[in-house]
Specification:
alpha/beta, Collagenase (Catalytic Domain), eight-stranded mixed sheet, 7 helices, 10 strands, disordered N terminus, binds zinc ion
Length: 267
């Protein structure tokens, strides 16, 4: 099949005419702000790609292949050398290189969403033992902190989950040693189109997360939702095992750099 023949074929694919791929991010969060008293926790970080509305591995493989082909076609239309130069120029003080390493040299981000902003629904679950009514506010604060960096994405918090782009829900604990999980979907051009975050109130071992810890884990998960990946530097909120409670300069710089670049492969 010639390359040009692929374009109508891709448009015929189900799910709103584009290939949607989900990326799953999970991570663990330290229970306390004192690094010295951290309980050992397994680093758990999963990336998984699946097509939406499909649970079969065959469909996953096909979806990934099509997405890769589409990304390749898109990359040829873009000035990849120029994008690489811009990454090089802006890389100092960021962990953009680690993100590219984990993503096979591709960047994913939301398109400009200032008007209309991204619609976020933050759930409540007072039935969970240890629930604190301030938790949803701590999560909304986390969204706003990232948006206030001046990136071209704003969030609006909606009461109705039905028409939200982003859902945040709560569980008592995960069965694995993690405290949060983010799943996002992107189109074939690596624009993120929707996302869901699940937050646990308790560590896998049973310890309750206080509002500051919930805020930190929310910052981490919203970082994923916006397109960031993990960094090895534990002074950043985007380290796999979160130890800090606030955004670092590198977190801010990496997010700003990501949102100055078009998404997609820079191979
Ligand atoms: Zn993570």
């Amino acid at each position: 099949m010639k390359r040009t023949d692929l374009i109508p074929a891709l448009l015929l694919l189900p799910v709103l005419g584009f290939v949607a791929v989900q990326a799953l991010h999970t991570h663990s969060l330290t229970a306390t702000s004192q690094a010295a008293s951290l309980a050992p926790a397994a680093r758990l970080h999963g990336h998984r790609a699946t097509t939406r509305n499909s649970g079969t591995t065959e469909a996953v493989a096909a979806g990934e292949m099509d997405a890769n082909v589409a990304a390749e076609l898109d990359a040829k239309k873009r000035d990849v050398l120029d994008i690489r130069r811009r990454i090089e120029l802006g890389a100092t003080g960021t962990y953009i290189g680690e993100i590219l390493g984990e993503r096979d040299s591709a960047l994913a981000r939301w398109p400009e969403r200032l008007a209309p902003p991204v619609r976020v629904w933050v759930g409540s679950n007072p039935m969970i033992e240890g629930w604190d009514d301030s938790y949803p506010d701590r999560v909304r604060d986390a969204f706003d902190e990232w948006a206030n960096l001046g990136i071209p994405v704003k969030f609006t918090f909606v009461r109705d989950s039905v028409d939200a782009d982003v859902h945040v829900s709560w569980i008592d604990h995960f069965d694995s040693p993690i405290s949060g999980k983010t799943v996002w979907a992107r189109d074939s051009k690596w624009w993120i189109v929707s996302a869901n975050i699940t937050l646990a109130l308790h560590h896998n071992a049973g310890e309750l997360l206080d509002p500051k810890a919930i805020h930190a884990i929310a910052l981490h998960e919203v970082g994923h939702l916006l397109g960031l990946d993990h960094t090895a530097d534990t002074t950043n909120i985007m380290t796999a095992r979160v130890r800090v409670r606030d955004l670092s300069e590198a977190d801010r710089a990496t997010m700003k750099l990501l949102y100055s670049l078009p998404p997609g492969s820079v191979k």
